[in-house]
Amino acid sequence: MAAATATLLLPARQHFAGQRLPEPLAGAIGRADRLPDGESGERAQLLRHFELLPRVWPVAALTRQRDAGDAAGAAWLRADPAYVRPDINGVRLLGIGEALRPTQADVDALLPALRPLFGDAGFPLDAPSPSRWYLRLPREAKLPMFAGPGDALGEDLFEHLPDGPDGRRWRALLSEAQVALHNHPRNAERATLGLPPVNSLWFWGAGVLPDQVRSPHARVRSDDVLLEALARNAGIDAGATGEGDVLVDYRALAGFDQALLDWIAGVGAGKIPRLVLDFADGARWQLTRAHRWRVWRRPAQHLRA
User: Fold this and answer.
1) How far apart are the C-alpha atoms of 101 and 265, rounded to whole Å?
2) Residue 181: which residues within 8 A CB-CB, separation 6 or more?
3) Packing angle between helix 185-192 and helix 104-120, nearest 10 degrees?
4) From CA 257, how far away is CA 131, in angstroms rounded?
5) What whole-number distance in Å separates Cα of residue 145 and Cα of residue 161?
6) pTM assigned to the model
7) Computed from CA positions of residues 2, 7, 290, 12, in that sequence, does the dihedral angle turn out positive or negative?
8) Rounded to whole angstroms, how far apart are CA atoms 211 and 233?
9) I need a surface site. Which of 118, 209, 232, 285 has the fewest CB within 10 A?
10) What's the distance, CA 117 to chain centroid?
């Protein structure tokens, strides 16, 4: 038996708007059990499968441990490369991290211009990955709330900056970092390559490494850095083969492709005793082979609530 339970992480149902459900997916969902809805969003979806103790969401510490293995003993803050552009309504955040296709050459050119600024503030800056830059902070550092990329991308930058007395310092640091990056010659080089400038940073994901990360899954299949980091902290080797419950990441799925239909077929063939479809908007269905006998149920035509 390849898996006792297979759980597929899927994008929000709105992602499939206008797409007709293909067979056998339409029939399978029509006969499946609808599970209680969970909360929507990436954080809530992942927390349905990983328990963090204490119950926090320190993305920077989790990915830092995955990237460099040295997250223990400090607090961490992502300071990812970002692209902002002024428009009639303010300054819009148009790209963060991997979306900018940063390279090691960008890191080598841009970090020396930023390190004195953050070093003087007591926050060493480094980049073990070109798309993930980190600030190391004292473990007890008091930090404001920082908006995640998914909340701020495409919107006015100033609507998502940290506020209050604790946020003032970070707004000032961001402004100084933008000045250092604005006319940096490396951005002219990026322009000749058809790439957007790295003219800002995005602070997010603050926290310390959790004391414990647990998951009911024995295996995880994903190329997502955060999901891989959660799996590693839970003692799960992402991508490992074998038996036991498996969590499979299809959140980048463009449509109802054959890979998804193969999982449905596996349930019908008895190879997968239980299949859970977990959508990012919180909707969930459970499929088992026994559901094939529910012939009185009509196939689903869509994924609306």
Assistant:
1) 37
2) 110, 113, 114, 187, 197, 198, 199, 200, 201
3) 160
4) 29
5) 9
6) 0.91
7) negative
8) 10
9) 232
10) 28
Query: What is the C-alpha separation between 181 and 173, in angstroms, rounded?
Result: 12
Q: What is the token pair recorded at 246?
A: 């498996």
Residue 193, token pair as written in the block: 């390559």
Structure tokens given for 72: 């223990």
